Amino acid sequence: MSNFGDLVKRLRKEKGLTLEQVARKIGSHKGYVSGIENDKVNPPSVKIIRKFARLFSQDEKNLVRIAWADKAPAIIRDDARRVMMLAETEGAGSADLVQVTLLNTLRSGYPGELGADGRPRPTVKATLVLPRSRAAVELAATVVDDSMELQGGPGFSRGDVVLLAREEKMRSGSCVFILYKTRQKSQGLVRQIVLEQGENVVLQPLNKEYPLEFLTHDDVDAVYRVVGRIGLLEPVTADVKS
């Protein structure tokens, strides 16, 4: 269901305009406007949205956000709508939005390798568009299991998307996305870090049913601190990179 199309239909009826009248005022045709209202065509370009905004005396930035959320890939559409509502609440404009690479989905699993840019190589082709915040969010990752759930306390559920900022120096107690390589495997995980004396880095799940993992500092390829979370997403599919 198109939120943008529903809004156009409601505003048109509130003004007592016909499809033909709206089409004429925006320089289009009846069938196109009807297609927008009935979710038969994609939401229009920003140029056309501005015409709708002037016709209906609406804030053009708000209309653009609604159209953007409707056009977002299915993998992040619900999330895009949450971001759009947050932007409305906080008065964020398009200049206050940033694109963030999404590393993975539930199906693709965490990335296990670094890319040429020195960052984790995503397992899907997807981005999030988020309100700019004080925290320098660089990446986002989907939590793929319940290993970070904590009964009666803060934690991360399967399907949550965690927002990540590069951690220059590991700190004991931080929740992070960590990419590491040992002789046995190369893997990424969302975990809490516990630093022991000497070279040991302990990866601690918040769910005690999952085991601890022990690394050395030399095993660690990249660490990103969790600086935010977007609530539980529905299980989705996406194009997984081969």
Can you describe this structure?
The chain has 242 residues and is an alpha+beta fold. It has two domains: 3-71, lambda repressor-like DNA-binding domains (434 Repressor (Amino-terminal Domain), Orthogonal Bundle), CATH 1.10.260.40; 97-230, Umud Fragment, subunit A (Ribbon). Helices cover 27% and strands 24% of the residues. The protein is built from six helices and nine strands; from the N terminus they run ααααααβββββββββ. The protein has helices at 3-14, 19-26, 30-37, 46-56, 60-71, 77-90, and strands at 97-102, 127-131, 139-142, 161-166, 175-181, 186-195, 200-204, 213-216, 220-230. Strands 2-1-3-4-9-5-6-7-8 form a nine-stranded mixed beta sheet. A hairpin with an 8-residue loop joins strand 7 and strand 8 (213-216). The longest helix is centred in the middle third of the chain and has 14 residues, at 77-90. The radius of gyration is 22 Å and the shape is elongated. The two termini are 32 Å apart. The relative contact order is 0.13.
* Envelope shape: elongated
Strand/helix succession: HHHHHHEEEEEEEEE
Return the domain count: 2
How much helical structure, as a percent, in the residues? 25-40%
In CATH, what is the homologous superfamily of the largest domain?
Umud Fragment, subunit A
Query: How would you state the average pLDDT, rounded?
Result: 82
The span between the termini is 32 Å
State the helix count: 6
CATH class of the largest domain equals Mainly Beta
- Main beta-sheet strand count, sense and barrel state: 9 strands, mixed
